[in-house]
Automatic annotation (TrEMBL):
NCBIfam families: chap_CsaA, PRK10089.1-3, PRK10089.1-4. PANTHER family: TRNA-AMINOACYLATION COFACTOR ARC1 FAMILY MEMBER (PTHR11586), TRNA-BINDING DOMAIN-CONTAINING PROTEIN (PTHR11586:SF37). Residues 8-112 form the TRNA-binding domain. GO terms for molecular function: tRNA binding. This is tRNA-binding protein. PROSITE patterns: TRBD. Keywords: RNA-binding, tRNA-binding. It comes from the Bacteria. The keyword RNA-binding applies.
Length: 112
């Protein structure tokens, strides 16, 4: 495994956000949701495409706190502008489990 220094780590801006809107993306080749995630006043609401339909219903995602990288350049995924990367890990079956946080930190809190 390659190592990185602290400056490289802090260059990746990871923040806590709350999912405020969820829609199924009908145009996606693999099942995916369109997510709108609120990071509070400084960053605001950003969009993301997420292939998490196997473990999460749209209702279960609504209001959920997540961790996301907010400083990647935007890209279009299945006709939808994705501005952030919501972070997850695979379970034993390879399905995506979203990273979340305990308690209720302020929206936009930076991960360190």
């Amino acid at each position: 495994m390659d190592t990185i220094n602290y400056e490289q780590f802090v260059a990746v801006d990871m923040r806590v956000g709350k999912i405020v809107k969820v829609e199924y993306n009908e145009k996606a080749k693999k099942p995916a949701y369109k997510l709108w995630v609120d990071f509070g006043g400084e960053i605001g609401v950003k969009q993301s495409s997420a292939q998490v339909t196997e473990l999460y219903s749209s209702q279960a995602l609504q209001g959920r706190l997540v961790v996301a990288v907010v400083n990647f350049p935007p890209k279009t995924v299945a006709g939808f502008k994705s501005e952030i990367l919501v972070l997850g890990v695979p379970n034993e079956e390879g399905k995506v489990l979203l990273l979340s946080v305990d308690d209720n930190p302020p929206l936009g809190s930076r991960v360190f």
